[in-house]
Amino acid sequence: MPFKMKKIKSSLVISAIMSLILSTGCTTEAKGQEPLPKGEDLRIVVATDIHYLSPKLRDGGEIEKYVYENGDGKEIGNMDLILDAFVEDMRKDPPDVLVVTGDLTLNGEKKSHEDLAKIFRKIETFGVQVIVTPGNHDISNVYAREFKGDKVDYADTVSPEEFEDIYSDFGFKDAVKRAEGNLSYLYKVSEDLYIAMVDSAVYKNNIENGYPATEGIVSQSSKVFLEESGALARENEADVIVAMHHNMMNHTTFMNAGFTLENAEEMRLLFRTQGFKVNLSGHIHIQDIHFTEEVTDIVTGAMSVYPNKYGIIDYSDGMLEYATKWVDIEGYAKGKGLSEHYDFMSDARERFKVFSSVRMKARLEGLIDEDSVSRLTELMGEINAYYFAGEKVPADVFDDSLTELLPEDDRTRFYIEDRKSGDLYENNSLIIDLKKQGN
Ligand SMILES: [Fe+2]
């Protein structure tokens, strides 16, 4: 797509917007920025689960290493490299909009938010409008920490107001409609296409609970906001893409509590009523597209986890085409002469295989013989490397004679058999007609 200077980003209207805010029931309306005119082809990039930890809060020491090795594959120490490569991808081929669907930070650290905002600001210099919504890790997270040497220290987190303040240029300031009491807002990309950014995170009681809630829900005021957004879109014959951190439906057969919205069924009904076809989400870290009850939930894989992907949406006259791309980390490293990262993806794949099988390995030791444990660990790592990329695991990866060594009710055996049966969906690409019923 050729470079397009933003017509939609106009700082001239910003002060006018603030004075034009009108209150209507549960939502707030504003003029917003100048959207692109009707009939424009648009490109939207979607990234999620960046889980950024500012370099100011880590030093590569013992405790950071421990956190990394005992985590779930988040490339904490490599995120600056990954984001530098992503910025370069955005510079080379700038979309109209970059949508970030939450879990911007590792654990809601204020410094991580501030430093990530600087990276978004850089992306906006390429003519890209960045718009964000929070995830379960981002606000009032009492787990915010810094990791220096062998010490863990408390780090400041952010309130919802501080989150909005830090990211005011990344959606909030240019919103044409706001939900009351949370961070949901409507962003007009063009006269044809609106994006409803839904705040599905539940953070109000985090401080008094002493832990951050994982689950998500679309609140009453966000439901009203979505209904009003739908009415506005119908009035103007525009299409709507919804984006939020949590998933609109189950994406696995084994891990859904806390991932799928608490009121997912009700939301799918609301989608049908409003004619919304697509939700963009993240949270579960795997790449997965699922379709239920006329709603398609596109889960883009976590950028912080192998294979460090993002999604690209091309929109033209009501047709939405989604595809994924790996951040070109090796290309970036080669351009900068960072020789230690020339083979980043194969190194990251090996690291991810270890992360994703280490707990199973510990559990199986003593249960079956040592050689079988190591072969099963390798098998599990291979399966997960394909699974997280949203790719079907090749049949020759499986080894029934090995899996059958496990007790019939063993959860690893269940997981492997579940992956073998695979799913029927293509997880990395999709074409959908936003106007047509029953896609
Ligand atoms: Fe999440």
Structure description:
Mean pLDDT is 91; it is low at 1-25. The chain is globular, with a radius of gyration of 22 Å. The chain contains 15 helices and 17 strands. The strands form 3 sheets. A 9-stranded mixed beta sheet has the order 1-2-8-9-10-11-12-14-13. It has a 6-stranded mixed beta sheet with strand order 5-4-3-15-16-17. The chain has a two-stranded antiparallel sheet with strand order 6-7. The protein has helices spanning 14-19, 62-69, 79-92, 110-124, 160-166, 168-172, 206-209, 220-235, 264-274, 329-336, 344-355, 358-364, 370-388, 400-403, 411-421; strands spanning 22-24, 27-29, 42-47, 97-101, 129-133, 145-148, 151-154, 177-179, 185-188, 193-198, 239-244, 278-281, 288-292, 295-299, 309-316, 319-326, 429-433. Helix 3 packs across helix 10 (329-336), helix 11 (344-355) crosses helix 13 (370-388) and helix 12 packs antiparallel against helix 13. It is 33% helix and 19% strand. With 439 residues, it is of the alpha/beta class. It folds into 2 domains: 11-330 and 427-433, 4-Layer Sandwich (Purple Acid Phosphatase, chain A, domain 2); 344-421, Serum Albumin, Chain A, Domain 1, CATH 1.10.246. The structure holds fe (ii) ion.
